[in-house]
Design brief:
Length: about 325
């Protein structure tokens, strides 16, 4: 009827790799919590019965041959159109009953809702101390560099708007994708909302696919890369200032010797220090140029987001 508000379409996204122990319960829980949603299970080359069980429970099962969670999320966002996306893991560590509240926040206008594990039960439930240390390290690094106050940077339980899903460039291939999402959102000043959730550890028989050292290195590498891309002025400019100051100090020591003796006795030091000053100035100049380019990229992102929002309203308006 005219004037009647259309219900938002909801897609539950479950990237899975060998989750036959838990995927059936996860699909049932989300179908119960969000009865109007479509549950999608993307099977990432599983060698067990994950796809078969998910299909039997009523999920739409698709396969993604490119290994890695980042590749799966990229395929999900490309393939699926919905007003609201809810993403969780297939390992039954996230409560499905929190999903309706997350959906409501997206409907209210938030770009991304973060299921915050760290404010509730994560550190009691998670039995892997290096994972806990890694979460604290990543959280402190990103919040410090972006002036933010996000509690859970690496959670896999999130809800997204249509605009976010269609404008977020998924570059990471593996588990570092959650960190990339958060940095992308902070850099582009998107509307984020953190919602504490009750985290539970994997049930018996379910095996984590995380490699604490290997994936930890990938996450830190992602942070390093994205700071270089999104914060080029402090990254290059800060290095340039340090190198330039060292060069000035060394040059000053040579000039002090010259003042007292009338001779330059340390030519290698003088040449090296002058080169350090030049390198520092070049790094500062590089940082300024790249910072202007990064600002232009943020402007283009706003335009792309506006275009995506307009397209969604136009398409949905025609379908109504």
């Amino acid at each position: 009827m005219p004037g009647e508000q259309r219900k938002p379409s909801i897609a539950v996204l479950l990237p899975c790799y060998n989750e036959e122990v838990t995927i059936g319960k996860v699909v049932r829980d989300f179908r119960a919590a969000l009865p109007d949603a479509t549950v999608y299970v993307y099977d990432n080359n599983s060698t067990d019965r994950t796809a078969e069980i998910a299909t039997a429970e009523g999920a739409v099962v698709r396969r993604e041959p490119r290994q890695g969670k980042g590749n799966v999320i990229r395929a999900m966002f490309e393939d699926i159109d919905a007003d609201v996306y809810v993403m969780a893991d297939g390992d039954d560590t996230y409560p499905a009953d929190a999903a309706p509240a997350m959906v409501n926040k997206v409907v209210e206008g938030y770009d991304m809702v973060i299921g915050d594990r760290l404010s509730s039960t994560y550190f009691q439930e998670n039995k892997r101390p290096f994972h806990n240390f890694g979460n604290r390290l990543v959280r402190g690094s990103i919040n410090g560099l972006f002036g933010a106050h996000v509690t859970d940077i690496m959670t896999g339980y999130r809800a997204f708007s249509f605009t976010f899903a269609k404008t977020y460039p998924v570059l990471s291939r593996g588990f570092e994708v959650e960190t990339e999402m958060t940095i992308h959102s902070l850099n582009n000043n998107l509307k984020l909302y953190e919602m504490p959730i009750q985290y539970r550890d994997r049930p018996a028989g379910s095996v984590s696919k995380l490699d604490t050292v290997g994936d930890g290195i990938k996450v830190l590498s992602t942070i390093f890369r994205m700071i270089r891309e999104y914060k080029p002025l402090p990254f290059f400019g800060g290095s340039g200032v340090i190198i330039g100051l060292l060069g000035f100090l060394l040059t000053g020591s040579v000039l002090v010797d010259f003042w007292h003796t009338g001779m330059v006795s340390r030519f290698p030091t003088l040449i090296g220090s002058v080169m350090m000053i030049v390198a520092g100035l070049l790094l500062i100049s590089t940082g300024i140029i790249l910072d202007n380019m990064a600002k232009n990229d943020r402007k283009r992102f706003v335009i792309d987001a506006n275009n995506a929002a307009f397209l969604r309203r136009h398409v949905m308006g025609e379908s109504d």
